[in-house]
Amino acid sequence: MDELVRAIEATLFASATPLTVGEIAEHVGEGGIEVALGKLAADYEGRGIELVERGGRWHFQTAPDLAHLLRRTREEPRRLSRAATETLAIVAYHEPVSRAEIEAIRGVQISKGTLDVLMEAGWVRTAGRREGPGRPLLYATTPEFLTHFGLSSRRDLPGIDDLKAAGLLDPLDEGVFQALEQEQLESKDQED
User: In total, how many domains does the chain have?
Assistant: First the structure.
């Protein structure tokens, strides 16, 4: 096996967190990292653990078809409240977004604890302040959000058709999600 591939494998295996290509380069040196990551991912394909890239960060994870074997030892995460789930969806589809904007979209005030729960989970972070009256804090998702939900980028978030097909869209929520999808399309147009 190529020495660079071995060095990258050791670095990723020993890391407590997913690493970017730049962070890997700090350990193994520059040059050929992307190719070596491709070889390493191919070597682990179909095995009990896989090398995956999520949000520009690489890490090893248990193969999805074997995850059930480890459920007994995993701490069960507590379920998010409906308010926290709605808030997370708004942040993901509209980031960066202020508290007032979240409340305007939801139509109700959110308690400070809702954002605290999402920040404690590592899925939401502060993303600066908006230029304007009061300079409100802005919120955005984190790389851990992408990793947890198996997304490569925010562009992989499901659209309204995906949610309908999965049976996850209540008829009462459909208007909210249509507004979210329209906002997402507009933000993609602005990015391009």
Answer: 2
Instruction: Tell me the per-residue pLDDT of 119-130, one tens digit each, with 9 for 90 and over.
Output: 888 899 998 898
- Rounded to two decimals, the pTM is 0.53
Whether 56 and 92 share a structural domain: no
Q: How much is the pLDDT for 72?
A: 63
Look at residue 17 and tell me if it is in a domain.
yes
Cβ atoms of 104 and 90 closer than 8 Å: no
Residue 77 lies inside a defined structural domain of this protein? no
> Residue 54 forms beta bridges with which residues?
57
Structural tokens at position 83: 């308010």
d(CA 25, CA 4): 10
pLDDT tens digits, 41-81: 999 998 999 999 988 899 998 888 887 777 665 455 667 78
CATH code (residue 142): 1.10.10.10
Query: Residue 105 corresponds to which tokens in the numbers above?
Result: 């979209």
Q: Which two tokens stand for residue 119?
A: 């920040």
